[in-house]
Amino acid sequence: MSTKRTKMAVLMLGGVLLVAGCGNDKKEEAEAIGSSASNKLPMAITASIYDRGSVPTEEGTYESNRWTKWMNEQSGVEVKWTPIPRNQEADKFNVLVASGQAPELITSYDRNLLSRFVSQGVAQPIDEYIEKYSTSYKEYIQQHPELKPFVTFNGQTYAIASMRNTQAATMIWIRQDWLDKLGLKAPTTVDELIEVAKAFRDGDPDGNGVNDTTAIAMSNAYSAIIDDLFMARGGEWFIEDGQATLSFFTDRYKKALTLRQTLYSEGLVDKEYVTDKNWARQKQLWITGKAGILFDTYNNGPSADFYNSQPDAKLTPLPPLSTEFGKNGYQKEVPNYLLTIFNKDMKNPEAAMKFVDWMLDKGWYNLSYGMEGTHYELKDNVPVTLDSDKLKKEVSYASEYRIVHQQTLTPEFLLARAGSDPVDQMVQQAIGEAITVAQSTEYRKDFPYTPAVDAFTDVSGQFQKKWDEIVTKVTMTPDLDAEWGVAQIRSEWEKLDGSSIEAKVQEWYEQNKADFN
Amino acid sequence: MDTVARGGIPALKRKNRLLYHLRRDRYLYLFLLPALGFYLIFKYSPLFGEVIAFKDFQIMKGIWDSPWAGLKHFRALLSNPDFWQVFRNTMLLNVYKLLFVFPAPIVLALMLNEVRFNGFKRFIQNLLYLPHFISWVVLGGVIVAVLSPSTGIVNTILEKGFGIEPIYFMVHAGWWPVVFTFSSIWQSAGWGTILYLAAMATIDPQLYEAARIDGASKLRQIWHVTLPGIRTTIAILLILQMGQITDVGFEQVYNLQNEAVFGVSDVISTYVYRMGLQAAQYSYSTAVGLFQGVIALILMLTVNKITKAMGEGGLW
Fold it and tell me: Coiled coil: which residue ranges (chain A) (predicted)?
């Protein structure tokens, strides 16, 4: 029995070792490939890429698709991409950084996040690399001094950035055909907006004989637009009588909060928006013609889906509305596009700079418009779309890879670019109008970017959760009013030692205001 | 076999005897190595990281070189009103779970056990197991849709059948915990029956025969034969459940909560996620996690003691 047992044990032990051995081999193999690759191709970098889940399955993944291959071939730099879920960038980046796996190029719209990485020593200054390795970007940044404050952290250049293609951002869209049908004029004030919304709710503008119209469809821009109407964007700082003040503690914010409450209690917005986590219901309301007003962005109201489902629709971007405090324009984006910082452990900064230069010179063009002959043809130097469906499927996700670009969106360009497809022409026409509307009125922004005050950055996440909750409560509860809401927000702010943060922000403002323009 | 070995070498000291056993059964002990390795690598070595709860962890310095902070983070969390709210929510939701979700699989298993037609029983079992395999992301979406005040089936039934005004369950601070509890039952009760059914299968059929001869009805048989038969299983599962009382699964809460009910739905796991991963306060959130673990351990030991005092075996 003993020998039998021993034999069995040895056999099984062999099995265990075999399994373990396989595991080791695989790991070594992978390492070997990795090292040999970097020996043969010293021009290699790793970079982050926002994952918006928009790469079609047939096209591959964010790590590998026709465009990643194309970039590797064309730029001469082998880039390994790390996808970062767009709406979870903070946690994904934090985990990658804390575990030492952060990519060499860290790209984000969130200057605060990058600012924290800079102060934690994750990133390195890049003045020297630009000087030594770059030609195109070096020239570009000299021609665009307005980018300087955004790429500078603690007095040194830490980030790469190019200009945005447009500074238009938020937009209120309205169905002109519905206005015409009910004999209404486009609203010019917030009160008129409420009246029009009520008429849409009750007047059966879609003419289906059923009282099933929700006046206003939302998106993630809804809160911003409501607050911006009153120049009091939630959580942002304003200068009131020379004092740095949070938006909540201005009289204007109370009005914004009251407007939210009115729109909700009157049933002018979807009563169930709170559980509509990715705004799917709102999109459905809009596209199926159950809503006549959309609070969204300049390029998200008109779409092929919308016009295909609502062939008779006429869409107009609504010019900025007035309130008792005056007229505020739509949000104007910061001048810079994505910010990219260099990881301290970057192996080959030369490759990174070479990639940036290539992207700025050539790469961005095809990543925006596709391939000549396949996706576009040049007419008067404008890349005219050949097939908008094909472009959407094969190219639209590629624009995400442009860490820098030289694209400028103007109404004329958009319209010229639209192909022969009448729907595409309508879409581009409307987006062009929205850009014009967005540029028409000044947007109040007292601080060009969030004050770089650690005490504020540390608590802003916790604080936001509190005021989100309070704002939602006031919106949905008719018995509560804006006074109550603001008092609650004030008490939460004080719990976070708000007064001393205010003093620090004030100090930061005094030191930096000379740089604001 | 054991007694033979012991009889053969009576004079050996305890330590030597251990060595002797190790050497004699060395091949058998080798089998244990992979499992031991698993626990060492994946369960024990990460415990070392808990040390950052007592440090001011800075990413670039790493765990060792970050400066010590003593009990700073624990003091911070004990004086933080947010933490106590989160702690209270966690405990409350778990008490509901203990009261309503824990007995659910027992009742289900008792009912399944009485089903005599095997094909039907398997069919029902499979239906019951199904939600266990669906992720909370999907279940969350289903629950929101089912409970929608305008289009959800629950409100339609309430309105058409009973004339009750539609209720927006998901944003109501009073209803949300109920939704949470019911969704837990829906998701886990079916799967939970497996252990109980296995325990019931080991009950000697003669006991039922004897009960029937004595004229016991079905209910009496359940009460006097089946339930005592699975008593030990219930006790052990109860102790294990207590070990999780400070822990509400992240996925379930995260996918069911919304801004309107943060006040009752924010729990330790979502709090740690927010503070640790999103706000990058690594040391503080580790302190929260450690605190939670210690409370859970104390509770589990207490219940284990009580169960033993009641005459059950307990965990050890």
Answer: none
Q: Which amino acid appears at position B156 of this protein?
A: T
| Domain span holding position B37 | 2-51
Residues B41 and B160 grouped into a single domain: no
Contact across the interface for B280 and A9, Cβ inside 8 Å: no
Give me the pLDDT at residue A23, please: 39
- d(C-alpha B158, C-alpha B266), whole Å: 29
Give the pLDDT confidence of B38-67 residue by residue, as tens digits: 999 998 998 888 899 999 888 878 888 888
- pLDDT tens track for A350-408: 999 999 999 999 999 999 999 999 999 998 889 999 988 899 899 999 999 999 999 99
The predicted pLDDT at position A362 comes to 92
Contacts of B272 in chain A (CB under 8 A): none
Q: Which residues contact B293 (CB under 8 A, 6 or more apart)?
A: B246
Assigned token pair, B34: 């992979």
Rounded to whole angstroms, the Cα distance separating A180 from A279 reads 28
Domain architecture of chain A: domains with CATH: 44-164+335-373 (3.40.190.10), 170-331+443-515 (3.40.190.10)
Q: Is A94 on the interface with B (CB under 8 A)?
A: yes
Q: Given CB atoms, is A495 within the 8 Å cutoff of chain B?
A: yes
Q: Are residues B13 and B70 in the same domain?
A: no
- B39 and B59: one domain? no
Residues (pLDDT < 50) of chain B are 1-8
d(CA B105, CA B191): 8
ipTM field: 0.79
Whole-model pTM?
0.82
Averaged over A266-272, what is the pLDDT? 92
- Closest by CA position to A315, among listed A166, A167, A196, A171: A171
Look at residues A425, A391, A390, A432 and name the one whose alpha carbon lies nearest to residue A409.
A432
Q: Determine the residue among B55, B277, B282 to mutate to test chain A binding: the one whose Cβ has the most chain A Cβ atoms within 10 Å.
A: B277
Instruction: Supply φ then ψ for residue A451, to 5 degrees.
Output: -55, 135
**Which among A6, A90, A116 has CB closest to B27?**
A6
Structure-block tokens of residue B53 = 């709860």
> Which of B27, B144, B279 lies nearest to residue A9, judging by beta carbons?
B27
Return d(Cα B157, Cα A143) in angstroms, integer.
66
CB B34 to CB A274 under 8 A?
no
Residue numbers in B near A5 (CB within 8 A): 27
User: Residue A10: which of B27, B150, B274 has the nearest Cβ?
Assistant: B27
Environment class of residue A493 by beta-carbon count within 10 Å: exposed (0-12), middle (13-18) or buried (19+)? buried
- Select from A275, A460, A469 the residue whose CB has the most chain B CBs within 10 Å, as the one to mutate to test that interface: A275
Pick among B27, B77, B139 to test the A interface (most A CBs inside 10 A): B27
The tokens describing A57, both together, are 């399955």
Cα A265–chain centre separation: 30
Specify if B314 maps to a domain: no
- What's the pLDDT at A355? 95
Q: What is the mean pLDDT of residues A250-260?
A: 95
At residue A175, the pLDDT reads 94
Please give the single-letter amino acid code of residue A196. V
Q: Does the residue B78 lie in any domain?
A: yes
